[in-house]
Amino acid sequence: MAIKPDYIRPLDLRHGRIDMNHGAGGRASLQLIEEVFAAAFDNDFLRQGDDAARLPPPPPGHGLVMATDGHVISPLFFPGGDIGALAVHGTVNDVAMLGATPLYLSASFILEEGLPLADLVRIVRSMAEASRAAGVPVVTGDTKVVEQGKGDGVFIATTGIGALPPGRRIGGAQARPGDVVLVSGTLGDHGVAVLSLRESLAFETTIESDSAALHGLVAALLASVPEGAVRTLRDPTRGGLASTLNEIARQSRAGITLDEAALPIRAQVEAACELLGLDPLYMANEGKLVAVVAPEAADAALAALRAHPLGAQSARIGTVGVDAQHFVQMRTRFGGRRMVDWLSGEPLPRIC
Amino acid sequence: MAIKPDYIRPLDLRHGRIDMNHGAGGRASLQLIEEVFAAAFDNDFLRQGDDAARLPPPPPGHGLVMATDGHVISPLFFPGGDIGALAVHGTVNDVAMLGATPLYLSASFILEEGLPLADLVRIVRSMAEASRAAGVPVVTGDTKVVEQGKGDGVFIATTGIGALPPGRRIGGAQARPGDVVLVSGTLGDHGVAVLSLRESLAFETTIESDSAALHGLVAALLASVPEGAVRTLRDPTRGGLASTLNEIARQSRAGITLDEAALPIRAQVEAACELLGLDPLYMANEGKLVAVVAPEAADAALAALRAHPLGAQSARIGTVGVDAQHFVQMRTRFGGRRMVDWLSGEPLPRIC
């Protein structure tokens, strides 16, 4: 158990694979951490080398925000992204949706025995690149290994901490009758990009995932209108726009009416969904936000979103109303009305 | 996809099982969150109901500490604990080992399709109880579901945030030659308790896991000696005492010499390890800490540890010395010396 090898060879990052030793907490774990994780994420916080990171607190007067997300997407690589970048974007976005500035990320990796190191390196580098691009460092982490057949390549749980400016109260419960509902771009791109790779559904598309960090877009939006005019921000991930709006309606004890003709949906996404018998309103997005804003601020907010590269196709898609049952409804293109319920029935598993 | 059921029955927490719908982000996900997670963890932060939690910041002048840990222990239930309590203790302890006060936890659950809801409820309740006992609430969370055979019951990644008092510098790099090494109790209890249940190793023992939150013990220790006298605190989990001391020696660029006769090890643990050809120095602990303290503070520190219920069997087990190669060595009971290397060779998988 305690034989000291004379010489430790570097990991074979091209042809090597994860084995149970990499999760045992000994020399092999240390080597994996140093040659794969620390090499990619390198920053002063990680370099402290303890089991926790010491971090500067948020600026005086600011509150803390904390969000966590497990990522189990299958396949690990998809058009427009991979699980590594997604794990950064998903958690940065959850922090940003309260109007907070994301500061730090932690990452917990659960690896399956047999995972090619080349895949892990590709994922970790992509994650590090997304973290650098977002300006939110991965400051601490953990790695576990499970036996082949007890996991599925890589799962990544990321947690984010952010700083909340004093007096900011953005949340799902803040929408009020009369408010306007905006969305920052086309719906369903991520869901269709991932589904296009699933064995049972394989079809051809050039649609890419919209996976992106939205804190810059949120900052631009908030700078464009008075404090308090943005009531709710939320990223419509699993369950899509329909589930997100139902959550907001429920939290705010209001109704929401959508305008079908105003929904930005790519023709290719619409076609793919029709082919598969799916509805773009329930398809996951990973780089879009829903904003509920005060009516008098709606024009300025929409203009600010459209002026940002991640919001060029933003649209005004609905309004908040009074509804004791908190229903989400849609005015259809043909002048009718239909319910837009929570996702129920067949799920689209492991879309994030 | 959007059919509104007339009536949602409550989850069958006795006979029900996790299915893919529980991870899809729609109504079934919401029901699982409300009837299992929110019901158990209930607190003002979780009740905010957004994808992130708004939290009071650490007290003025304090720094932040962040730690994360994935938990993949098998089996999920073991003598003295379960994966739920362990997930709280492991992360609380990582925060506490920097001398910080743990404030908040997040939890990411990765569930395998088919998991009995009764098992999940038992785990979540145990986790909630551990969280309440520690005074560290679970303020936000996430749940994903993977197909049967792509996970293993439950994995839980917890992240902790703590407040670090100004001027506190406890860490793996702070040990200095002359310092004294203390341990807060018997070694290897957790590892032996878990191994006793493994199919291939089944043997009888009454040993229970030592799984416990150590922040109270740390507070008692720190109150007993001047600031700066405690150099390093670390919980010897995966890889056991041997790996932890090698980490400290490496980070502090020093050597460590252990005194075998001083190591507190239960006779049952010693016997079980002998039977299995294992060494208690490499067995995981989940409720013990190693403290490296200034020599002049060692007696007071040991007395403070022993006065606490979680440190009654604390012992002085070694000293820090000068060693350019950062070796950990042991004076054996028979007057010899042997190297205590990093864990290498056969690992003990999924011990935490």
Automatic annotation (TrEMBL), chains A, B:
Chain ranges of the PurM-like C-terminal domain: 176-328
Ranges of residues in domain PurM-like N-terminal: 49-163
InterPro entries: HypE, PurM-like_C_dom, PurM-like_C_sf, PurM-like_N, PurM-like_N_sf
Example GO biological process: protein maturation
Annotated CDD domains: HypE
Superkingdom in the source lineage: Bacteria
NCBIfam families: hypE (TIGR02124)
Stored PANTHER family: CARBAMOYL DEHYDRATASE HYPE, HYDROGENASE ISOENZYMES FORMATION PROTEIN HYPE
Family as reported in the entry's similarity comment: Belongs to the HypE family.
Protein name: Hydrogenase expression/formation protein HypE
Organism of provenance: Sphaerotilus mobilis
